[in-house]
Fold this protein.
Amino acid sequence: MTAYREYLLSREYRRDMLSSAENSRLLRSIKPLTRSVAAHWRILMWTGRQLEALGRRLQRLSYPYQQQNVYNGGSLPVPRAR
């Protein structure tokens, strides 16, 4: 008898088959979880993009005030178009 056939008839084979069945059961219970995690990840990424855009917009709006502001000894100028 070959080693492979001995393995197929052995107790280890049955144990391995059982563990693979348990693994597939685990995978089935994990799949919906990964789907919801992916959805939340997409939402987080979208929120991040919106915040970035908002930050850029605020930076553009505050540009005149960065030229000469209270912190480097000047007074706040009247905002003017760039």
User: Anything to note?
Assistant: The mean pLDDT is 76. Residues 3-65 form one domain.
